[in-house]
Each structure stands twice: as structure tokens, then as C-alpha cells.
Specification:
There is one protein chain. With 382 residues, the protein is of the alpha/beta class. The chain folds into 2 domains: 213 residues, Alanine racemase (TIM Barrel), CATH 3.20.20.10; 99 residues, Lyase, Ornithine Decarboxylase, Chain A, domain 1 (Beta Barrel), CATH 2.40.37. The chain is 29% helix and 25% strand. It contains 11 helices and 21 strands. It has a 10-stranded mixed sheet. An 8-stranded parallel beta barrel has the order 2-3-4-5-6-8-9-10, surrounded by 5 helices. Strands 13-14 form a two-stranded antiparallel sheet. It starts with 8 loop residues before the first strand and ends with a strand. 42% of the residues are buried. Bound molecules: pyridoxal-5'-phosphate. Pyridoxal-5'-phosphate binds next to helix 9.
């Protein structure tokens, strides 16, 4: 196993990832396939580090946003099914074909390019059609012309149109229902044309929990795999998998009136004990948590004081007895033992939970545990 090359690291509890996968699998049953979304480095958890646990516990696909994310997975896992949900430009489709990656398409032109590449490399490229039911991001616009175009794509010999999918805007039950109906109407038109797709999917995490009736035969959960709850109506047993940790690198006493960090925006109201911790905004911690964020030391909240630097920040340890340099600091926990949970962190910094997770950069190593033992370490740098 690799050494852990930085005191600030992300600890991922693989038992919790597996628990969540089993929970999702139980919720949807055997007939619904799971495309486990591991884009953005597995929402900060490390896509490569969690892939095996996902595949071995019911994920049919690993879904990513972009080609480079797909290639990272392919380098590490020769046989896993990998699906790019975003667009790949024409000149990069060659990578997709050579590496047996399933590609989202929404033009006849790209279908033809993939067909030709398939012939060139003696492969049959697999695609899912993106159908836009209102989100207005990617996909064939919902209209008769698109139905014709998709029909033409399905006639191309040397590609396999394995699926069709759409994405909900989650703008409320009524709007979601409108989108779902547009999707179903399109699918029915294809059925009338004799076209059946192996996979049909429209649901992400929130909708998969909230709308049992829209699951079709595949879902694309991201957040819930990591134990993050954003759903409103349904319920699902989940366990947060990520803990963001560091260690105190330096402790000092300062006198009443002294300032700390850039511009002295924090000044000691009394003689204080200040700890320095080696994490900052370059690790993905929101700089705007100045004056709001806290970490947990010895089970107690220690406020972050002064401006958060790129690589370090200072915490107020006054009133926490017996703290030593090298002691553990919990940056994000699951909310127990006075830890800052992902939901609270996101609210304090004015964003959402997925942003808090996915912005954790590649500087902190990822450490994977099973049965409370470290089973894998990934250093991206070093
Ligand atoms: C990110 C993404 C998902 C997963 O989203 P969650 O809200 O994390 O479940 C599903 N589908 C598409 C197309 C996505 O881009």
C-alpha cells in the first residue's frame, strides 16, 4: 500500500458505499439496472477507488460526465461498462471506440462518425440517445423531426443503440410529470416503428427515491451512492461514506489584541491558543466559510478564524484542553460528535451538497477503509 503523503486526506468508508448500493438495489429491485454515477472523481470520493465496490454490489454501469473521466476508469478497469453521459466532440470519438466506452449522442452526424470508426477498428460502438424533454441542456429536442432522426440512427448497421434517456429538471411534481410523459410518448412512437431500446432511463438520485413510477429499467444515481440525501417524499437508508480529515501542524499562544491571517480580519478578544491546520481553499474547502466554518478536535467544535488561505487555515483551540500538534482534525464528518456535516457545510457556504463534495480537489490523498482498516491509499500527486 502507498504511504499517505499528506496530513489532509479524504477517508472513504467502503462499507458505507456498499451499504448504500445494497439499499438502492433493494429499493429498485432486480429489474432496474443501476448506472452508478462516478463523475467528478466520484463526487470527491475517488472514482477509481470506489469502482470495484460499486460493480461488485450491483452497478451495471459506471457513468461519468466526460471522456477523460471515462479513460481514467478504463485504464484501471479493462472490463467494466463505462458510460459517458455528456457530449464528446467528433475528433475525440476515436478514443471512445478504441476503449469500448458507451457514448451519449444526440445527432445523426455523430452516429455516422461512430459507425465509420466501428468499421475501422472492427468494433460495434454502443450509444445511448439523449432525448431532451425540457431541461434544455443536451439532447434531441422533443419533436417529430427528432423521432425521424433517431429512427434513422437505429437503422445504422455498425452501431448498437442500447439505450435512450432524458433528465428531469426537478422543478416540481407537475413539471417532472410533463417531462416524463414526453419521454414515454417518444418511446411509444419508437415502439410503433418497431424500435425497442434495451435501456430507458430518466431518473437521478432524488427522482429515483421520490418517483417510484418513473424508474423504467435503469436509474442513474449519484448522490445517494455516497450517502447524501436530497430527496423530499421517499425514504431510503443511507450512510455518508466520506470523512474529510487533517492534523494540527502547529500550536501557539497569542495575546489579546493580536491578529491572525491576511488583513488581520480576526483579532483575539482574549489570550488565545491557535492551531494551524494544513488545508485551505486549494483542497476544495470553501473560502467563504471564514467566520462560519468550524472543525472538530477532540470531539469539540473549533472555529476557523481569520481568512482561509490557499493551503492552510487557523483554528481557535482556546477552551479545548490537552490538544497537541499532530492531533486529528475532522473537517467534514457525518454530523455526529460535533462534526460539520456536508449539508450544514453547503448551507453555510451558500451552495449544495454535491458542490461541497465534488470540489474537494486531488491534493488530498484518498484513503479507503473496510471493517475500520485501511485497505487502499490513492495519492494523485506525489
Ligand atoms: C450527475 C448526473 C446524475 C446523477 O445526479 P445525482 O443528483 O447526484 O443523483 C444523473 N444523470 C445525469 C445526466 C447527470 O449528469
Amino acid at each position: 500500500m502507498e504511504a499517505i503523503l499528506r496530513d489532509t486526506f479524504v477517508e472513504v468508508n467502503l462499507d458505507h458505499i456498499i451499504f448504500n448500493m445494497k439499499s438502492i438495489k433493494k429499493m429498485v429491485g432486480e429489474k432496474v439496472a443501476i448506472a452508478a454515477v462516478v463523475k467528478a472523481n466520484g463526487y470527491g470520493h475517488g472514482a477509481v477507488g470506489i469502482a470495484k465496490a460499486l460493480i461488485e454490489n450491483g452497478a451495471n454501469y459506471l457513468a461519468v460526465a466526460s471522456l477523460n473521466e471515462a479513460l481514467e476508469l478504463r485504464k484501471n478497469f479493462k472490463d467494466y461498462k463505462i458510460f459517458i453521459m455528456g457530449a464528446t466532440k467528433d475528433s475525440h470519438l476515436e478514443y471512445v471506440v478504441k476503449n469500448n466506452i458507451t457514448q451519449t449522442i444526440f445527432s445523426y452526424k455523430q452516429a455516422k462518425i461512430l459507425n465509420e470508426l466501428g468499421i475501422k477498428y472492427n468494433k460495434k460502438p454502443v450509444v445511448h440517445i439523449k432525448y431532451d424533454t425540457g431541461f434544455n441542456r443536451l439532447g434531441f429536442k422533443d419533436c417529430d423531426y427528432s423521432i425521424e432522426e433517431i429512427g434513422k440512427i437505429c437503422m445504422i448497421d455498425n452501431i448498437y443503440v442500447e439505450g435512450i434517456f432524458s433528465h428531469l429538471a426537478l422543478a416540481g411534481k407537475e413539471e417532472d410529470n410533463k417531462q416524463y410523459n414526453k419521454f414515454i410518448n417518444a418511446i411509444e412512437k419508437f415502439q410503433d416503428m418497431g424500435i425497442n431500446f434495451k435501456y430507458k432511463h430518466i431518473e437521478d438520485s432524488i427522482s429515483a427515491v421520490d418517483y417510484k413510477e418513473y424508474r423504467l429499467n435503469m436509474i442513474r444515481p449519484g448522490a445517494i451512492i455516497y450517502g447524501i440525501k436530497g430527496f423530499h417524499y421517499g425514504s431510503l437508508d443511507l450512510k455518508q461514506a466520506l470523512t474529510f480529515k487533517s492534523k494540527i501542524s502547529y500550536i501557539k499562544k497569542i495575546s489579546k489584541g493580536e491578529g491572525v491571517s491576511y488583513d488581520y480580519l480576526w483579532k483575539a478578544k482574549e489570550d488565545s491558543i491557535i492551531g494551524t491546520v494544513p488545508f485551505g481553499y486549494a483542497d476544495g474547502y470553501p473560502r467563504n466559510l471564514r467566520g462560519k466554518g468550524y472543525v472538530t478536535v477532540c470531539g469539540k467544535k473549533a472555529p476557523i478564524i481569520g481568512v482561509i488561505c490557499m493551503d492552510q487555515c487557523m483554528i481557535d483551540l482556546t477552551g479545548i484542553p490537552d490538544v497537541c500538534e499532530g492531533d486529528e482534525v475532522i473537517i467534514y464528518g457525518d454530523g455526529t460528535n460535533n462534526t460539520l456535516d456536508i449539508d450544514t457545510a453547503s448551507k453555510l457556504s451558500g451552495t449544495n451538497k454535491n458542490e461541497i463534495l465534488s470540489r474537494i480537489s486531488i491534493r488530498p490523498p484518498r484513503i479507503y477503509t473496510k471493517n475500520n482498516k485501511i485497505v487502499n491509499v490513492i495519492n494523485y500527486i506525489g
